Amino acid sequence: MATSALVDDSSIWIGYESKGLLSLNLNGTHKATFSLENKKLPSNQIRSLLKDENGQIWVATFEGITILKNHQVKLVVNQQNYPELPNHSIWSLYKDSHKNIWIGTWMGGLAFHNTFNNSFLHYNKSTSKNSLSDNIVSCLAESINKRDILIGTDDGDLNSFNPETNIFTKIPVFYNGQEVKNIKSIAYDKDQTLWIGTYGNGLLYRTKHDIDFKQLTPPFNMGLQVLDLLPTENGLWVSDYPNGVYFYNFETKEFTRFLHNPLDINTISNNNVRHIIKDKHDNIWFATENGLNVLKKGSRDFIHIFYQENNAKSIATNYIYSLHEGSQGYIWIGTNGHGLDKYDPNTDTTEHFTEKDGLTGNEIFSILEDSEHNLWITTENGISKFNTVTNETQSFISNKGILNNHFHPTAALVSTDKELYFGGSNGLIRFYPKEIQINPFLPITTITHFYINNEVVLPYTKKSCS
Fold this sequence. Notes:
Layout: E1 2-7, E2 11-16, E3 21-25, E4 30-34, E5 46-51, E6 57-61, E7 64-69, E8 72-77, E9 90-95, E10 101-105, E11 109-113, E12 121-123, E13 137-142, E14 149-153, E15 158-162, E16 167-171, E17 174-175, E18 178-179, E19 183-188, E20 194-198, E21 203-206, E22 214-216, E23 225-231, E24 235-241, E25 245-249, E26 255-258, E27 273-278, E28 284-288, E29 291-295, E30 302-305, E31 320-325, E32 331-335, E33 340-344, E34 349-353, E35 366-369, E36 374-379, E37 382-387, E38 393-396, E39 407-414, E40 420-424, E41 427-431, E42 451-452, E43 455-456
Antiparallel strand pairs: 1-2, 2-3, 3-4, 5-6, 6-7, 7-8, 9-10, 10-11, 12-41, 13-14, 14-15, 15-16, 17-18, 19-20, 20-21, 21-22, 23-24, 24-25, 25-26, 27-28, 28-29, 29-30, 31-32, 32-33, 33-34, 35-36, 36-37, 37-38, 39-40, 40-41, 42-43
């Protein structure tokens, strides 16, 4: 028996009491089926259907809400992921004139979704076997199939996340007969070899033809952890924290190590390398705990960029967390406690942006750029959207998944379909920048009481103001 129906621009949607959801073309031919059996719905009992302002279809079921976009599952809203949902059984959906969605539940009362509350999708560890295996997300990478996201955690192994189903799959990493849990960095190279940097187990790798992981063993003592990885056409740059960096040549199998030497000005300025990037000119940039370093293409001499006390156009501090080359060629620098720097390699000058300019904090952990050239910046207090043309900022502080999340510099990713991912101490968040909107509706102010000297004053009385 059909319980609900919806017609939009290209489809007819029919929900059934016990047979899931059917989508038809406008001419009545079959388009798609959604059910518990094909894992596209949490329940076959459909109670209500609604289309929101973004063209997404909301499906109310006995076990929560499924939100579909372009006939793909975008999100499952249930009590496990959203404890504020009063009951698992959803009976009705309603969109009001301000584009808010009201959710009626069975014996659990009413829930409210504000279209403009910008609730970033948030994931952390739960009792479900399909959840993230650990709350501390340390690194991210996109899989070879350009669909799944690989997630490294501090104490929960490697995870593979399917954005369509919102399911996490644990991928055990074994080396020397023991399971490796503390993963610090992930990368694929041009030959689809998976590289995993660990804490205490060095650098592991698995070719596309292998099942087991092997350890890359350099001819020198390795550091405590592989904090970052940068594959290039010829090899792999490795942050061997706190023992400098090294480059592994894929063809010759040779290692080239780079360590700080206080007697040699051409060496790297510090052995604690936190982030490595390559710019459009194939120069390699290193964020260290004592200065910014660049290795020009074809050179083995490091150029140092330091903070200079009497130079307002130098970088703000020598302790650097993260780097990003912007679309206009500037190097954006995330600093430890001194905000965001915009460094111009052509003029060797820097502009500074801090909380005083609207950023959510001065600890800049990671920097990503969206398709409209805005920067999305994680700080100790939340996320900032930074317009690189106007220098204007928007802050996101109390949204779900952002509050109390100490973000990791290497846990930041732009996926192939332009979705942004950030990880930290409070799990994983994801969002499409274009879907983050500013509420255009001004709140209505209502005065309920008026006080003078802590005494209630009523209108048209002796105590009231003239």
